[in-house]
Design a protein that fits this description.
By secondary structure, this protein is mainly α. The protein is built from 13 helices and four strands. A hairpin with a 4-residue loop joins β3 and β4. The longest helix has 61 residues. It is globular.
Length: 406
Amino acid sequence: MAVEETSRAAQNTRRSHQVQARARPGRRDLTERLNIFAKAVALGVLIALIGVGAFGRFYTARFNGLVSTTAMEIGDIAQQAREGHGMSTKVIRPLALAYGQPNQEGVMPEMLHAPLYPLLLSWLFKARGGGDASVAIFNGLMFLLTGWVLYAIARALWDKTVGLIVVIAYFVSIEAIGQALTATGASVVGLLITTAIWAALRNRQAVQGSRGDSQAPTTRRLLIWPAIVGGIFGLTYLAGLTSLLLIIPLAVLATAGSRSRRKQVALIVVAALIVMVPWVVRNLQLSGTLLPPMAKYTLLTHTQTYPGESVFQQMPGQVPSPIAFILSHPGDVLNKVGRGLTMLYRGGPNTINPYLFPFFILGAFLFEADSLKRVPIRGRQPEAFPVASSNSNNHSASSEYMFVRA
Protein backbone atom coordinates (compact mmCIF):
# COMPACT_ATOMS: atom_id res chain seq x y z
CA MET A 1 0.00 0.00 0.00
CA ALA A 2 2.79 2.39 0.87
CA VAL A 3 4.48 1.61 -2.42
CA GLU A 4 1.25 2.25 -4.38
CA GLU A 5 0.64 5.55 -2.56
CA THR A 6 4.21 6.61 -3.25
CA SER A 7 3.80 5.73 -6.93
CA ARG A 8 0.52 7.66 -7.18
CA ALA A 9 2.07 10.67 -5.47
CA ALA A 10 4.98 10.59 -7.93
CA GLN A 11 2.57 10.37 -10.88
CA ASN A 12 0.53 13.29 -9.53
CA THR A 13 3.70 15.29 -9.08
CA ARG A 14 4.77 14.59 -12.68
CA ARG A 15 1.34 15.55 -13.96
CA SER A 16 1.38 18.81 -12.03
CA HIS A 17 4.84 19.57 -13.42
CA GLN A 18 3.60 18.85 -16.96
CA VAL A 19 0.60 21.14 -16.48
CA GLN A 20 2.84 23.89 -15.14
CA ALA A 21 5.28 23.38 -18.02
CA ARG A 22 2.43 23.71 -20.51
CA ALA A 23 1.19 26.86 -18.80
CA ARG A 24 4.59 28.52 -18.57
CA PRO A 25 5.14 29.13 -22.31
CA GLY A 26 1.92 31.14 -22.54
CA ARG A 27 2.85 33.21 -19.53
CA ARG A 28 6.37 33.60 -20.83
CA ASP A 29 5.11 34.65 -24.27
CA LEU A 30 2.77 37.20 -22.72
CA THR A 31 5.54 38.55 -20.53
CA GLU A 32 7.95 38.73 -23.46
CA ARG A 33 5.37 40.54 -25.57
CA LEU A 34 4.74 43.05 -22.82
CA ASN A 35 8.49 43.58 -22.42
CA ILE A 36 8.94 44.06 -26.16
CA PHE A 37 6.05 46.53 -26.25
CA ALA A 38 7.41 48.44 -23.26
CA LYS A 39 10.87 48.60 -24.83
CA ALA A 40 9.42 49.78 -28.15
CA VAL A 41 7.45 52.52 -26.40
CA ALA A 42 10.51 53.59 -24.39
CA LEU A 43 12.65 53.63 -27.52
CA GLY A 44 10.06 55.65 -29.41
CA VAL A 45 9.89 58.15 -26.57
CA LEU A 46 13.70 58.36 -26.50
CA ILE A 47 13.87 59.05 -30.24
CA ALA A 48 11.12 61.66 -29.91
CA LEU A 49 12.88 63.37 -27.01
CA ILE A 50 16.16 63.55 -28.91
CA GLY A 51 14.46 65.00 -31.98
CA VAL A 52 12.23 67.41 -30.09
CA GLY A 53 15.14 68.55 -27.94
CA ALA A 54 17.43 69.21 -30.92
CA PHE A 55 14.78 70.97 -32.98
CA GLY A 56 13.38 72.89 -30.01
CA ARG A 57 16.82 74.19 -29.09
CA PHE A 58 17.39 75.64 -32.56
CA TYR A 59 13.78 76.82 -32.85
CA THR A 60 13.98 78.93 -29.69
CA ALA A 61 17.45 80.23 -30.52
CA ARG A 62 17.25 80.97 -34.23
CA PHE A 63 13.67 81.13 -35.50
CA ASN A 64 12.44 84.71 -35.91
CA GLY A 65 9.73 84.11 -38.48
CA LEU A 66 9.74 82.98 -42.09
CA VAL A 67 12.43 84.66 -44.16
CA SER A 68 12.28 82.52 -47.31
CA THR A 69 10.20 83.91 -50.14
CA THR A 70 9.22 80.37 -51.12
CA ALA A 71 8.00 79.61 -47.60
CA MET A 72 5.90 82.78 -47.48
CA GLU A 73 4.38 82.06 -50.90
CA ILE A 74 3.50 78.52 -49.88
CA GLY A 75 2.01 79.81 -46.65
CA ASP A 76 -0.27 82.09 -48.69
CA ILE A 77 -1.34 79.15 -50.86
CA ALA A 78 -2.14 77.15 -47.73
CA GLN A 79 -4.21 80.04 -46.39
CA GLN A 80 -6.21 80.22 -49.63
CA ALA A 81 -6.78 76.46 -49.55
CA ARG A 82 -7.95 76.78 -45.96
CA GLU A 83 -10.51 79.38 -47.04
CA GLY A 84 -11.84 77.13 -49.80
CA HIS A 85 -10.09 78.64 -52.84
CA GLY A 86 -8.12 75.49 -53.64
CA MET A 87 -4.62 75.71 -55.09
CA SER A 88 -4.68 79.49 -55.40
CA THR A 89 -2.65 82.48 -54.31
CA LYS A 90 -2.76 86.23 -53.82
CA VAL A 91 0.84 86.50 -55.00
CA ILE A 92 0.35 87.94 -58.47
CA ARG A 93 3.20 87.30 -60.89
CA PRO A 94 2.74 89.42 -64.03
CA LEU A 95 4.01 86.60 -66.24
CA ALA A 96 1.26 84.32 -64.89
CA LEU A 97 -1.41 86.66 -66.27
CA ALA A 98 -0.97 84.93 -69.61
CA TYR A 99 -2.67 81.87 -68.12
CA GLY A 100 -5.29 83.39 -65.83
CA GLN A 101 -6.66 86.49 -64.15
CA PRO A 102 -7.27 87.20 -60.46
CA ASN A 103 -10.86 87.27 -59.26
CA GLN A 104 -12.53 90.13 -57.40
CA GLU A 105 -10.78 89.09 -54.18
CA GLY A 106 -7.37 89.22 -55.88
CA VAL A 107 -6.98 85.43 -55.89
CA MET A 108 -5.76 83.47 -58.91
CA PRO A 109 -4.66 79.87 -59.56
CA GLU A 110 -1.16 78.99 -58.36
CA MET A 111 1.10 78.21 -61.32
CA LEU A 112 4.53 77.49 -59.85
CA HIS A 113 4.59 75.47 -56.63
CA ALA A 114 3.69 71.80 -56.07
CA PRO A 115 0.40 71.09 -54.26
CA LEU A 116 1.01 68.58 -51.45
CA TYR A 117 2.93 70.73 -48.99
CA PRO A 118 0.48 73.67 -49.12
CA LEU A 119 -2.44 71.26 -48.78
CA LEU A 120 -0.96 69.71 -45.64
CA LEU A 121 -0.30 73.16 -44.22
CA SER A 122 -3.90 74.18 -44.89
CA TRP A 123 -5.10 71.28 -42.74
CA LEU A 124 -2.77 72.43 -39.98
CA PHE A 125 -4.09 75.99 -40.28
CA LYS A 126 -7.63 74.68 -39.83
CA ALA A 127 -6.56 72.83 -36.69
CA ARG A 128 -4.50 75.52 -34.91
CA GLY A 129 -4.58 78.64 -37.04
CA GLY A 130 -2.07 80.08 -39.48
CA GLY A 131 1.18 81.84 -38.78
CA ASP A 132 4.93 81.49 -39.13
CA ALA A 133 5.18 79.41 -35.97
CA SER A 134 2.63 76.89 -37.26
CA VAL A 135 4.57 76.46 -40.49
CA ALA A 136 7.88 75.95 -38.65
CA ILE A 137 6.37 73.50 -36.14
CA PHE A 138 4.82 71.47 -38.96
CA ASN A 139 8.20 71.17 -40.65
CA GLY A 140 9.71 70.21 -37.31
CA LEU A 141 7.19 67.37 -37.13
CA MET A 142 8.29 66.20 -40.59
CA PHE A 143 11.88 66.35 -39.35
CA LEU A 144 10.96 64.21 -36.34
CA LEU A 145 9.07 61.63 -38.41
CA THR A 146 12.02 61.34 -40.78
CA GLY A 147 14.19 60.32 -37.85
CA TRP A 148 11.75 57.55 -36.91
CA VAL A 149 11.74 56.20 -40.47
CA LEU A 150 15.53 56.28 -40.58
CA TYR A 151 15.59 54.27 -37.37
CA ALA A 152 13.23 51.69 -38.90
CA ILE A 153 15.50 51.36 -41.94
CA ALA A 154 18.70 51.04 -39.93
CA ARG A 155 17.17 48.55 -37.51
CA ALA A 156 15.87 46.39 -40.37
CA LEU A 157 19.31 46.36 -41.99
CA TRP A 158 21.40 46.07 -38.85
CA ASP A 159 20.17 46.43 -35.25
CA LYS A 160 18.85 48.88 -32.66
CA THR A 161 22.28 50.25 -31.81
CA VAL A 162 23.01 51.25 -35.39
CA GLY A 163 19.48 52.62 -35.66
CA LEU A 164 20.02 54.94 -32.70
CA ILE A 165 23.37 56.09 -34.09
CA VAL A 166 21.76 56.94 -37.43
CA VAL A 167 18.91 58.81 -35.72
CA ILE A 168 21.25 60.82 -33.50
CA ALA A 169 23.46 61.69 -36.47
CA TYR A 170 20.39 62.97 -38.31
CA PHE A 171 18.87 64.85 -35.39
CA VAL A 172 22.05 66.81 -34.70
CA SER A 173 22.51 67.75 -38.35
CA ILE A 174 22.44 71.55 -38.51
CA GLU A 175 21.54 71.36 -42.19
CA ALA A 176 18.54 69.10 -41.57
CA ILE A 177 17.24 71.34 -38.78
CA GLY A 178 17.90 74.40 -40.93
CA GLN A 179 15.87 72.92 -43.78
CA ALA A 180 12.97 72.42 -41.38
CA LEU A 181 13.19 75.95 -39.97
CA THR A 182 13.30 77.59 -43.41
CA ALA A 183 9.98 75.78 -44.07
CA THR A 184 10.38 75.57 -47.85
CA GLY A 185 9.00 72.02 -47.96
CA ALA A 186 12.34 70.23 -48.18
CA SER A 187 11.61 68.41 -44.92
CA VAL A 188 8.39 66.99 -46.41
CA VAL A 189 10.24 65.76 -49.49
CA GLY A 190 12.96 64.26 -47.28
CA LEU A 191 10.40 62.39 -45.19
CA LEU A 192 8.63 60.97 -48.24
CA ILE A 193 11.87 59.91 -49.95
CA THR A 194 12.99 58.18 -46.78
CA THR A 195 9.62 56.45 -46.42
CA ALA A 196 9.80 55.30 -50.04
CA ILE A 197 13.21 53.77 -49.33
CA TRP A 198 11.78 52.01 -46.26
CA ALA A 199 8.96 50.57 -48.40
CA ALA A 200 11.52 49.49 -51.01
CA LEU A 201 13.42 47.69 -48.26
CA ARG A 202 10.26 45.89 -47.14
CA ASN A 203 9.61 44.76 -50.71
CA ARG A 204 13.19 43.56 -51.03
CA GLN A 205 12.84 41.56 -47.83
CA ALA A 206 9.64 40.00 -49.16
CA VAL A 207 11.43 39.12 -52.40
CA GLN A 208 14.33 37.53 -50.54
CA GLY A 209 11.90 35.58 -48.36
CA SER A 210 10.22 34.12 -51.43
CA ARG A 211 13.42 32.85 -53.05
CA GLY A 212 13.55 29.68 -51.04
CA ASP A 213 9.87 28.94 -51.52
CA SER A 214 8.78 26.53 -54.21
CA GLN A 215 5.51 28.42 -54.56
CA ALA A 216 5.08 31.70 -56.38
CA PRO A 217 5.19 34.89 -54.30
CA THR A 218 1.89 35.78 -52.62
CA THR A 219 -0.32 38.62 -53.80
CA ARG A 220 0.85 40.68 -50.83
CA ARG A 221 4.47 40.29 -51.82
CA LEU A 222 3.78 40.90 -55.49
CA LEU A 223 1.40 43.83 -55.33
CA ILE A 224 1.21 45.70 -52.05
CA TRP A 225 4.77 46.86 -51.42
CA PRO A 226 5.57 47.87 -55.03
CA ALA A 227 2.31 49.84 -55.10
CA ILE A 228 3.26 51.55 -51.82
CA VAL A 229 6.71 52.42 -53.18
CA GLY A 230 5.22 53.95 -56.31
CA GLY A 231 2.47 55.76 -54.43
CA ILE A 232 4.89 57.35 -51.99
CA PHE A 233 7.17 58.39 -54.83
CA GLY A 234 4.20 60.02 -56.54
CA LEU A 235 3.48 61.95 -53.35
CA THR A 236 7.14 62.97 -53.22
CA TYR A 237 6.81 64.50 -56.67
CA LEU A 238 3.66 66.32 -55.59
CA ALA A 239 5.58 67.66 -52.59
CA GLY A 240 8.14 69.36 -54.83
CA LEU A 241 10.64 66.71 -55.96
CA THR A 242 12.14 68.06 -59.17
CA SER A 243 13.62 64.90 -60.69
CA LEU A 244 11.38 62.02 -61.72
CA LEU A 245 14.49 60.07 -62.68
CA LEU A 246 14.94 59.09 -59.03
CA ILE A 247 12.25 56.49 -59.54
CA ILE A 248 14.71 54.44 -61.61
CA PRO A 249 17.21 53.57 -58.83
CA LEU A 250 14.34 53.24 -56.35
CA ALA A 251 12.55 50.68 -58.55
CA VAL A 252 15.75 48.81 -59.35
CA LEU A 253 16.74 48.50 -55.71
CA ALA A 254 13.25 47.56 -54.55
CA THR A 255 12.88 44.72 -57.04
CA ALA A 256 16.43 43.35 -57.26
CA GLY A 257 16.33 39.55 -57.33
CA SER A 258 12.57 39.34 -57.82
CA ARG A 259 11.24 36.59 -60.04
CA SER A 260 8.51 39.03 -61.11
CA ARG A 261 10.73 42.06 -61.45
CA ARG A 262 9.13 43.49 -64.57
CA LYS A 263 5.66 43.29 -63.07
CA GLN A 264 6.80 44.92 -59.84
CA VAL A 265 8.62 47.73 -61.66
CA ALA A 266 5.50 48.29 -63.75
CA LEU A 267 3.41 48.44 -60.58
CA ILE A 268 5.75 51.03 -59.06
CA VAL A 269 5.55 53.23 -62.15
CA VAL A 270 1.77 52.84 -62.53
CA ALA A 271 1.15 53.62 -58.85
CA ALA A 272 3.30 56.76 -59.09
CA LEU A 273 1.46 57.89 -62.22
CA ILE A 274 -1.96 57.32 -60.63
CA VAL A 275 -1.01 59.59 -57.73
CA MET A 276 0.31 62.29 -60.07
CA VAL A 277 -2.54 62.18 -62.61
CA PRO A 278 -4.93 64.60 -60.82
CA TRP A 279 -2.23 67.27 -60.67
CA VAL A 280 -1.33 66.74 -64.33
CA VAL A 281 -5.01 66.98 -65.33
CA ARG A 282 -5.36 70.22 -63.37
CA ASN A 283 -2.36 71.72 -65.18
CA LEU A 284 -3.68 70.62 -68.57
CA GLN A 285 -7.01 72.24 -67.88
CA LEU A 286 -5.35 75.41 -66.61
CA SER A 287 -2.62 75.97 -69.18
CA GLY A 288 -2.43 72.98 -71.51
CA THR A 289 0.91 71.88 -70.00
CA LEU A 290 1.81 68.81 -67.95
CA LEU A 291 3.68 70.91 -65.40
CA PRO A 292 2.65 74.20 -63.76
CA PRO A 293 3.12 76.80 -66.52
CA MET A 294 5.56 78.94 -64.53
CA ALA A 295 7.83 75.98 -63.80
CA LYS A 296 9.36 76.00 -67.28
CA TYR A 297 10.53 79.59 -66.80
CA THR A 298 12.76 78.63 -63.89
CA LEU A 299 15.39 77.92 -66.55
CA LEU A 300 15.56 81.67 -67.17
CA THR A 301 15.90 82.64 -63.50
CA HIS A 302 19.27 83.71 -62.06
CA THR A 303 20.69 84.59 -65.46
CA GLN A 304 22.33 87.86 -66.51
CA THR A 305 19.26 88.73 -68.55
CA TYR A 306 16.84 87.93 -65.71
CA PRO A 307 18.65 88.23 -62.34
CA GLY A 308 17.08 86.40 -59.42
CA GLU A 309 13.46 85.60 -60.17
CA SER A 310 12.79 88.80 -62.07
CA VAL A 311 11.55 86.82 -65.06
CA PHE A 312 8.29 86.23 -63.20
CA GLN A 313 7.79 90.00 -62.96
CA GLN A 314 7.81 90.43 -66.74
CA MET A 315 4.58 90.98 -68.63
CA PRO A 316 3.28 88.27 -71.00
CA GLY A 317 4.83 88.59 -74.43
CA GLN A 318 8.04 90.12 -73.09
CA VAL A 319 9.66 86.78 -72.24
CA PRO A 320 10.77 84.28 -74.89
CA SER A 321 10.08 80.58 -74.54
CA PRO A 322 12.79 78.60 -72.72
CA ILE A 323 13.93 76.96 -75.97
CA ALA A 324 14.10 80.31 -77.76
CA PHE A 325 16.05 81.77 -74.84
CA ILE A 326 18.60 78.94 -74.98
CA LEU A 327 19.10 79.46 -78.71
CA SER A 328 19.35 83.25 -78.48
CA HIS A 329 21.37 83.46 -75.26
CA PRO A 330 23.69 80.41 -75.23
CA GLY A 331 26.42 82.26 -73.33
CA ASP A 332 23.95 83.35 -70.64
CA VAL A 333 22.74 79.78 -70.19
CA LEU A 334 26.26 78.33 -70.10
CA ASN A 335 27.29 80.96 -67.56
CA LYS A 336 24.34 79.98 -65.35
CA VAL A 337 25.24 76.30 -65.67
CA GLY A 338 28.85 77.05 -64.72
CA ARG A 339 27.82 79.09 -61.70
CA GLY A 340 25.38 76.40 -60.70
CA LEU A 341 28.06 73.71 -60.84
CA THR A 342 30.40 75.90 -58.79
CA MET A 343 27.71 76.44 -56.16
CA LEU A 344 26.97 72.73 -56.14
CA TYR A 345 30.65 71.96 -55.59
CA ARG A 346 30.98 74.47 -52.74
CA GLY A 347 27.67 74.20 -50.92
CA GLY A 348 25.67 71.43 -52.54
CA PRO A 349 26.38 68.74 -49.94
CA ASN A 350 25.16 71.03 -47.16
CA THR A 351 22.03 71.90 -49.13
CA ILE A 352 21.06 68.29 -49.73
CA ASN A 353 22.42 66.92 -46.48
CA PRO A 354 18.95 65.87 -45.23
CA TYR A 355 18.75 63.56 -48.23
CA LEU A 356 22.27 62.16 -47.88
CA PHE A 357 21.36 60.10 -44.84
CA PRO A 358 18.65 58.01 -46.52
CA PHE A 359 20.59 57.67 -49.75
CA PHE A 360 23.74 56.56 -47.94
CA ILE A 361 21.63 53.89 -46.32
CA LEU A 362 20.78 52.73 -49.82
CA GLY A 363 24.33 51.42 -49.99
CA ALA A 364 23.19 48.50 -47.90
CA PHE A 365 21.03 47.35 -50.79
CA LEU A 366 23.99 46.95 -53.13
CA PHE A 367 25.25 43.70 -51.63
CA GLU A 368 23.05 40.79 -50.65
CA ALA A 369 25.51 38.58 -48.82
CA ASP A 370 25.80 39.33 -45.12
CA SER A 371 29.57 39.10 -45.39
CA LEU A 372 29.56 41.99 -47.86
CA LYS A 373 27.14 44.33 -46.11
CA ARG A 374 28.61 47.73 -45.35
CA VAL A 375 28.10 48.43 -41.68
CA PRO A 376 29.07 51.70 -39.97
CA ILE A 377 29.74 50.41 -36.46
CA ARG A 378 29.39 46.64 -36.22
CA GLY A 379 30.59 44.00 -38.63
CA ARG A 380 32.13 40.55 -38.83
CA GLN A 381 34.93 41.82 -41.02
CA PRO A 382 36.33 45.15 -42.19
CA GLU A 383 33.67 46.86 -44.26
CA ALA A 384 33.13 50.25 -45.87
CA PHE A 385 30.27 52.64 -45.33
CA PRO A 386 29.95 56.16 -46.74
CA VAL A 387 29.67 58.79 -44.06
CA ALA A 388 28.67 62.44 -44.55
CA SER A 389 31.06 64.74 -42.76
CA SER A 390 30.33 68.45 -42.51
CA ASN A 391 32.59 71.36 -41.71
CA SER A 392 30.49 73.99 -39.99
CA ASN A 393 33.22 76.61 -40.30
CA ASN A 394 33.39 76.79 -44.09
CA HIS A 395 29.94 75.31 -44.72
CA SER A 396 31.24 72.53 -46.89
CA ALA A 397 30.81 68.81 -46.69
CA SER A 398 32.49 65.77 -48.13
CA SER A 399 31.84 62.08 -48.40
CA GLU A 400 34.41 59.76 -46.92
CA TYR A 401 34.74 56.04 -46.38
CA MET A 402 35.07 54.77 -42.84
CA PHE A 403 36.50 51.28 -42.37
CA VAL A 404 35.44 49.46 -39.25
CA ARG A 405 36.52 46.19 -37.71
CA ALA A 406 34.21 44.53 -35.17
